[in-house]
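Quick start: what a row looks like.
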Amino acid sequence: MKHCYWLFLLLFAVLLSSCITNKDVVYLQDKGTAMSDSLQIKELSKPYRVQINDILYINVKALDEELVSIFNPTSQENSGQNVGGANLYFTGFTVDLHGNIKFPILGEINVLGYTIKDIEAKVKTALLKQYFKETAEIFVTVKLAGLRYTVTGETGGTGVYTLYQDRVNIIEALANAGDIKTTGDRTDVLVIRQYPDGQKIHHIDLTDVAAMKSPYYYIQPNDMILVKPLKRKVLGAGETATQTLTTVASIFSVLVSTYFLAKNL
């Protein structure tokens, strides 16, 4: 019986140390890694530069709307539907493998690596040079056709999501996917990002307020967010102290029963 007692204490110590604590699940804690003005951290988001397979929504306006009708897909003007979703897949401008889009009249325009503002200026300049006069007073609007990203791992809902916003931080993106489960590792979330020369894996600790200074705090189109399970989950410990104690009690009960059965044989 003495051996069971010590085994019980050992199991209790291991499982108790494996409990998921408050520090494991609270976002943006001040861990001393931020400056004294940690509550006023300056954002490090940079203008997004267009990548291959992005879909762009481009709208051209002028004093004479008939002159610009050829540049604006008719389905966007007459369908009565919001610009977005599957509609943009068919009517938007997809960046091909060479970084080009095919635009009416102007032909192929290279947009790879350009910001949205750059593309607006580029399209406007080309239109004024080849089709319009300055007196037409044209106005060009360029937007990404939604911010598409993938979430997988220990989250409430894995899958591919699209948000129609210009900027989305990683916490908002995860919240849209059902948030990270209690058993997910918030201290080492992986962001797999697409670059012209391939993909790179980045790490971000979402329990540290310093994460807001990370260049990966704001997600980009085609990002993949991967949340790993905590080691505590692998050990099979409970998420709370009550669950852990229940597990320990069950194991101890089995050990005691086994001990007495063996002793009576």
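That is the whole record. Residues 167 and 218 are 7 Å apart (CA to CA). Strands lie at 55-61, 93-94, 100-103, 107-110, 139-144, 147-153, 159-163, 189-195, 198-204, 224-227.
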